[in-house]
Design brief:
Layout (H helix, E strand, L loop, with lengths): L2 E3 L9 E3 L6 H9 L7 E3 L3 H4 L2 H9 L6 E8 L6 E4 L4 E5 L3 E7 L9 E2 L4 E5 L4 E4 L3 E2 L4 E2 L5 E8 L20 E3 L2 E5 L13 E2 L11
Length: about 210
């Protein structure tokens, strides 16, 4: 699979580069944190949300809706799964990383998805990248031995625990693994029996990518 730069025009169907905000302090804090071996995700970070840019972004980007600012970091070298949200996700890169993405419109009946339809994009440190609500995505892939790290804006409550008593009614409901998190896993992704295994085809790894 060819890796395109996130500035390539073909990324326009998945998202865009976000400008007009000063994320210098967000990146500084992210770079001060040790990157673990395993992937760690925190939905909301009090330290990051205390920064003035959080309220500015919440007001201007999310149109005064409540948002959250957390982070994701670690080491990962494969696809494993794809997820989507009802609302854009914005990642602020503290390191370079590669992201594998797809289109929600390519999900087939039975909530299945052919991984040959995914594309790979290189995100550079310092960039803020919006992923549209219709963009399938999951954990980034590291490009350096030290791992990857990015801060993550999402609508408030996303990726937090579902309310007790939730019962799926439709096939899509079965994908809901956390609040505002619809997830489709690959059989080789190691995500456990609770996550529907709708991804078929290659479970892409960084060894499959052509820079």
């Amino acid at each position: 699979m060819k890796v395109y730069d996130v500035t390539d025009p073909r990324f326009a169907v998945y998202g865009r580069i976000v400008t007009g905000f000063d994320f210098e302090e967000v990146i500084r804090i992210m770079r001060s944190m040790p990157i673990p071996e395993e992937v760690v995700y925190k939905a909301a970070s009090p330290e990051l949300e205390a920064l003035p840019v959080f309220k500015e972004f919440e007001s201007r980007f999310y149109g005064q809706l409540s948002a959250q600012l957390g982070y994701c970091m670690g080491h990962n070298d494969r696809l494993n799964a794809l997820e989507y949200h009802r609302g854009s996700e914005v990642n602020i890169a503290a390191t370079d990383y590669i992201v594998l993405v797809g289109r929600q419109s390519d999900i087939e009946p039975g909530m299945r998805y052919d991984t040959s339809k995914t594309e790979a994009f290189y995100v550079h440190a310092g960039m803020a990248v919006e992923f549209y609500a219709t963009t399938l995505h999951y954990c980034a892939c590291h490009v350096a031995e030290g791992g990857y790290a990015h801060a993550t804006f999402l609508p408030a409550g996303t990726n937090t625990e579902l309310d007790p008593g939730f019962r799926p009614v439709t096939e899509e409901d079965a994908l809901l693994q956390a609040k505002n998190k619809w997830l489709i896993a690959h059989a080789e992704g190691g995500l456990g029996d609770a996550v529907p295994k709708g991804l078929y085809g290659r479970n892409w790894t960084t060894a499959d990518l052509e820079m």
